[in-house]
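Lecture notes, continued. The same structure-token format from the folding unit now serves as the input rather than the output. Read the line below as a description of shape only.
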């Protein structure tokens, strides 16, 4: 396909850039006086560049019929919006009625006459009343006559001095002539046409009660009424008057009053006038700016390609583009895209002072000149094609807008230094089709007029219309939607309503920096060490809330002096400045080593109770940025709430939504940033320095973060929640049962596990105790004892459970335990034999004992025959005495270190035997004597006294 510049050639004045604003401003007085530009002065050239709209066709038909005396409306009022073609229409009537060239040379006129059934149009006299050309306070000369009033000017133009004679007296005294006088004047010089333009501008100069050479306010209104009445009585005379549509165009209150009075006067006799339709404006502009298109095949190919493109894109573009008539619109508007006209005529004409025809012509003439100079390759001139980088083209659009739009365009929209251009430089996908600038130009054209004073919810244009203003055949719509998304996140003056992911989201530019710009400013003012770090700490603390699982404490950015040095397993979260990366481990590792060594000013003893989490170095940068963004949005919302920031409701809703989104993004960023588990360890006991292993956490998990940390710890055996006795036995053999040492203090092992990084890191002390309890029930791992003397173990148990883990509990190597057990059993058997011999039952006891001797000659356990059973057996074997034994008194010294076990043993071996006789009365008393050579400490005396009272001691004294 060909570019538009290869099919549609602009007129020479457009190509050369020599057009002037005055060339687009039709001046009927200048035409009458022979001083207008050629395209307006020459009738043939005028009709060549004039598209006869439906309204103009109706009017010219009325003129032709009226001048032929075959009906037609005598009075027609043209009242359309500013720049709606009123004066241009009057010029068409002027050239038609004055007949300076044959009718066949007036393009479009012969067909019009044929449709009306007319053969010819008689040449008519023409009177042009231009309210801007005369002043009611200053008479003017016409030949030898001095003219003072509009009726004097009308009479002189129709008949010179002869015609002026009809109204000379009325002109001299400023009184309006009657309708009969005006009827005679019109009839004398008929066929005639009276064109009245800018009448309000003339009449508004009269003030109440003021007499000027031009008459009075009332005399001029009376003249207009008399003229409209008189022309009805002359079959081949006609009055055509133009009045502004908007009160803004007429100036002050005098102008408004004059307009209303004239509307009332003309309203009694006026004919209807149909203004220019948008589609007709297409042809008006095309004819004025472009030469006739010769390559119609090339034009049609382009238009069909666009129509097919819109069908293919479906719902991505506005629904009207799928209709068959849209192809017709493309063809009629070519080489300008219909969307350009729609935006100009629907949006920009709502601005006070924007001229419907003249304003569009001026703008498009400059656009075409700039694009031609820059060798535009677009298939159509689209909203996205507008060269807003060109100062003159930009001025044509911004001069009616509020101040500040130049800065918006330069900063965000167009030009080498705009944000849109910078985005295209960074991303070749956008730069290859100028996607960012085409998007911003389209949004500007569709939103700038409504940038202020509009109802909420109507501002801006949606994504479909943005695509319509940018997308060309053989291009991917995704490039433009992606560019729009990127731009809406970074531009200072672009705003968006609703969720940017929704199709109906509307986008617009505003001269006020958008909330995003405000956010960026506040974001830059956030304090790193207080606000940002504090918010990150809150986010990580929120991640660590809930059940801690294996961790007894989670310490977020806590100094090492505030992390307790106790047996609790603790998770320490390092600060953002101690982030980890594979390339740079030092900040995080140095921080870990400091925690392992120090607890404030004191050394740390339980280093193996700490596990660490550090942020990823790249992730923490994203986290800081997202936190700054969230803080900035939150401050904006807070300022809106207290009235410190004054914005509209739509922006308030946007701010709240952005704040919520930013908060959720910060939460995700925190989870993604803190993704490295750092676990210190030593491989063997002889290592001097700790090895720190870095293990990544999952970043996309939806479950609790602490659960993920614990799961990774458990999976990699960095923290052990369940410990088998076989592993305890293994560590005891490797580290404690060596040489003559066959027993290890249980809590000593637990203390070592807390201190040394080469030992297993159990989740809790309970895990350790459960391993002991489980192992104590077996003879495969260890035996337990409550003390050890030269004679052996006290409170010894082997293969029996339960046990209580306290400061007295010893874990005994299985081999040594078996040897001690055998020795103890041999001694017990010997004592039993000795006791039996003394009682005279040596043979019976010896027989019973012999049953317990194993084949290997070792004394084996007697099974169920424990001390209680043997005592009963001895009692049965003893000979009956002459006197029954009724009293038993026993006293025993108990070492304090094994008192707990001894008391349990006394209960099992003595008290349980004595209480078998239900008739026995048994009293047990405990006497404790404690001597402190240096005196007992106060806290000891206090505790013992309080506990003695609670336990019911009858005697409890300190001396």
């Amino acid at each position: 396909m060909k570019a538009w510049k290869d099919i549609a050639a602009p007129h020479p004045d457009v190509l050369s850039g020599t057009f002037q604003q005055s060339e687009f401003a039709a001046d009927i007085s200048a035409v009458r006086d022979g001083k207008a530009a050629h395209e307006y002065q020459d009738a043939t050239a005028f009709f060549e560049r004039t598209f006869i709209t439906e309204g103009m066709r109706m009017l010219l038909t009325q003129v032709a019929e009226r001048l032929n005396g075959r009906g037609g409306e005598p009075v027609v009022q043209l009242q359309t919006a500013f720049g709606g073609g009123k004066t241009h229409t009057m010029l068409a009537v002027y050239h038609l009625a004055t007949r300076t060239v044959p009718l066949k040379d007036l393009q479009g006129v012969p067909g019009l006459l044929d449709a009306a059934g007319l053969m010819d149009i008689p040449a008519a006299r023409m009177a042009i009343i231009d309210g801007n050309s005369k002043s009611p306070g200053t008479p003017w000369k016409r030949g030898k006559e001095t003219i003072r009033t509009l009726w004097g000017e009308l009479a002189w133009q129709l008949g010179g001095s002869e015609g002026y004679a009809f109204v000379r007296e009325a002109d001299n005294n400023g009184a309006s002539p009657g309708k009969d006088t005006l009827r005679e004047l019109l009839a004398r010089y008929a066929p005639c046409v009276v064109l009245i333009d800018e009448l309000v501008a003339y009449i508004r100069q009269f003030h109440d009660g003021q007499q000027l050479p031009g008459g009075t306010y009332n005399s001029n209104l009376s003249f207009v009424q008399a003229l409209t009445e008189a022309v009805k009585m002359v079959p081949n005379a006609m009055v055509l008057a133009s009045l502004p549509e908007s009160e803004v165009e007429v100036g002050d209150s005098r102008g408004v009053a004059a307009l209303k009075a004239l509307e009332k006067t003309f309203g009694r006799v006026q004919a209807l006038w149909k203004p220019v339709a948008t589609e007709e404006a297409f042809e008006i502009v095309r004819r004025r700016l472009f030469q006739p298109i010769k390559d119609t095949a090339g034009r049609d190919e382009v238009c069909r390609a666009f129509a097919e493109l819109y069908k293919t894109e479906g719902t991505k573009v506005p629904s009207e583009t799928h209709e068959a008539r849209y192809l017709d619109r493309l063809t009629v508007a070519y080489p300008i895209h219909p969307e350009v006209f729609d935006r100009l005529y629907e949006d920009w004409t709502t601005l006070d002072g924007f001229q419907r025809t003249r304003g569009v012509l001026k703008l498009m003439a400059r656009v075409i000149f700039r694009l031609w100079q820059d060798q535009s390759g677009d298939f159509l001139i689209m909203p996205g094609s507008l060269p807003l980088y060109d100062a003159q083209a930009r001025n044509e659009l911004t001069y009616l807008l509020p101040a500040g739009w130049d800065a918006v365009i330069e900063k965000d929209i167009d030009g080498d230094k705009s944000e849109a251009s910078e985005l295209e430089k960074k991303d070749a996908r956008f730069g290859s089709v100028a996607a960012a600038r085409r998007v911003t130009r389209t949004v500007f054209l569709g939103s700038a007029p409504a940038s202020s004073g509009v109802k909420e919810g109507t501002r801006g244009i949606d994504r479909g219309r943005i695509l319509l203003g940018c997308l060309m055949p053989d291009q991917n719509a995704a490039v433009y939607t992606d560019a729009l998304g990127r731009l809406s996140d970074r531009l200072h003056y672009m705003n968006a309503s609703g969720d940017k992911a929704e199709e109906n989201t509307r986008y617009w530019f505003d001269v006020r920096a958008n909330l995003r710009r405000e956010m960026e400013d506040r974001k830059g003012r956030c304090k790193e060490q207080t606000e940002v770090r504090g918010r990150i700490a809150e986010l990580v603390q929120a991640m660590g809330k809930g059940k801690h699982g294996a961790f007894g404490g989670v310490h977020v950015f806590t100094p090492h002096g505030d992390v307790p040095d106790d047996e609790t397993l603790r998770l320490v979260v390092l600060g953002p400045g101690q982030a980890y990366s594979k390339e740079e481990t030092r900040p995080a590792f140095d921080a870990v080593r400091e925690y392992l060594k120090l607890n404030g000013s004191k050394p740390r003893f339980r280093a193996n109770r700490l596990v660490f989490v550090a942020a990823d170095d790249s992730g923490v940068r994203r986290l800081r940025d997202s936190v700054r963004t969230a803080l900035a949005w939150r401050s904006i919302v807070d300022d809106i709430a207290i009235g410190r920031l004054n914005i509209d409701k739509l922006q308030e809703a946007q701010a709240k939504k952005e704040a919520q989104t930013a908060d959720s993004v910060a939460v995700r960023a925190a989870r993604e940033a803190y993704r490295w588990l750092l676990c210190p360890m030593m491989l063997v006991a002889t290592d001097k320095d700790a090895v720190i292993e870095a293990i990544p956490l999952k970043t996309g998990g939806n479950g609790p973060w602490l659960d993920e940390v614990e799961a990774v710890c458990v999976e990699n055996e960095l923290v052990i929640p369940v410990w088998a006795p076989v592993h305890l036995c293994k560590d005891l053999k490797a580290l404690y049962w060596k040489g003559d040492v066959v027993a290890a203090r249980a809590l000593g092992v637990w203390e070592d596990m807390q201190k040394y990084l080469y030992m297993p890191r159990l989740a809790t002390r309970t895990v350790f105790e459960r391993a002991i309890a489980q192992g104590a029930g077996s003879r495969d791992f260890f035996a337990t004892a409550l003390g050890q003397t030269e004679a052996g173990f006290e409170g010894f148990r082997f293969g029996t459970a339960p046990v209580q883990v306290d400061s007295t509990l010893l874990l005994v190597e299985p081999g040594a335990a078996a040897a001690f057990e055998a020795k103890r059993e041999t001694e017990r058997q010997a004592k039993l034999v000795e006791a039996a011999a003394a009682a005279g039952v040596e043979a019976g006891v010896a027989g019973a004992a012999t049953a317990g001797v194993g084949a290997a000659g070792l004394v084996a356990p007697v099974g169920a025959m424990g001390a209680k059973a043997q005592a009963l057996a001895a009692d049965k074997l003893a000979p009956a005495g002459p006197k029954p034994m009724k009293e038993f008194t026993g006293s025993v010294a108990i070492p304090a270190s094994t008192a707990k076990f001894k008391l349990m043993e006394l209960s099992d071996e003595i008290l349980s035997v004595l209480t078998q006789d239900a008739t026995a009365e048994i009293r047990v008393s405990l006497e404790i004597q404690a001597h402190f050579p240096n005196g007992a400490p106060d806290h000891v005396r206090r505790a013992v006294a309080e506990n003695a009272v609670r336990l019911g001691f009858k005697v409890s004294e300190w001396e």
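Point for the exam: The mean pLDDT is 84.
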